[in-house]
Amino acid sequence: MKTSITFLAALLISSFSFAQNVTKRIDSIITDNYKKNPQVGISVGYIENNKEFFTAYGKLNEETQTQIDKNSIFEIASITKILTSNLIAQAVIEHKIKLDDYIDNLLPKVYVLHENLRNKIKISDLASHQSGLPDIDFAKLIAADPKQPLNGVTQETLSAVINSCSELKDYGKYRYSTIGYTLLGQILERAYGSSYDKIIREKMLDPLKMRNTLTKNFDVKNRTTAHNVEGGTQEFLKWNVTAPAGLVKSSTSDMVRFLKAILDQETEVGKAGLITEKIFYKDENREMGMGTNISTDEKNTIYLKSGDSMGQSSIICYNRVKNWGVVILLDHRNSKMRQNLLNTIYDTVLK
Asked: Where in the sequence is the signal peptide annotated (predicted)?
């Protein structure tokens, strides 16, 4: 018995030391990046075996001394898509919809699909970016309104895009789609008879106590400042019909709560996560689940999603087998920096 207790104590100490070493190395990487780029505010969250770690650098804005922390609000942009796909999977578990259902009768009545498109597009096609539907012309929208480009997207403009489509030129092939996730949000609304805002709150934010995850109203004191690629200040994108594709705002503390839930197969989010992690699309360049990219090497399979708003960049990833997850939020739009940070953390610490 004495030997067993001694062994257990040594094991616990070893595990604690390993976890402490990992977090120190992650913090060192983030510290080094901030020293080289002091103008870029950053917040990072890490979880392993339910143990949480956070580090953050920078100020909320130039007019304050308030430091960014784990509860500071960022635009998570297209990370919103993995929240939406998780809600879709929850609806599947609840028998509200099926992944192989055609979307024809699940959309609002304002959409009238061309006969060439009927009984063609499935929910899983939308979720894995292979529906073949035309997408929103962001370049045109940005040119018209650089601060709030999504002001040009309404239910009427979306209906016009879908209803005028008579051919799916690349159906079954990967092409990233904002309009696809907008439609998934509307399918959720019809399935539950409620707004997307209420659905995500009732099915995810409230159960997981994600108090720093915001939808329509994000005028809060702990909001970070967004900066475009030139370094100028940029407005947070306002909530509109495209919200399920990329308009949720959140913090590293809440994203770690989400990671904790998705890694726990006993939670509703975790059960749904297992569905979203199935491979729905594969070619020589990528494997796609529902809203998540799947990356596999000889030792690991990780699930990840990045996001870029007009003024901020973000990325989240997790390894179910090794039970860890990490989220990186930047107050600048800098996709190269957030990807390099994740690559460095993964290659030197987590791999």
From this structure: 1-19
User: Quick one: angle between helices 178-192 and 80-93, nearest 10?
Assistant: 40
Model confidence band, residue 337 (pLDDT cutoffs 50, 70, 90):
very high
d(CA 43, CA 74): 9
Token duo for residue 236: 């947070």
pLDDT at 110: 96
Residue 5 lies in a domain: no
User: Can you give the residue range of the structural domain that contains 201?
Assistant: 18-350
2 assigned to some structural domain? no
Whether 34 and 67 have beta carbons less than 8 Å apart is answered as: no
7 found inside a domain: no
Global model pTM greater than 0.85: yes
- 220 lies in a domain? yes
- CATH number for the domain spanning 276: value is 3.40.710.10
What integer pLDDT is reported at residue 281 of this predicted model? 97
* DSSP code, position 150: G
Taking each continuous run of H as one helix and of E as one strand, the counts in the chain are: 11, 12
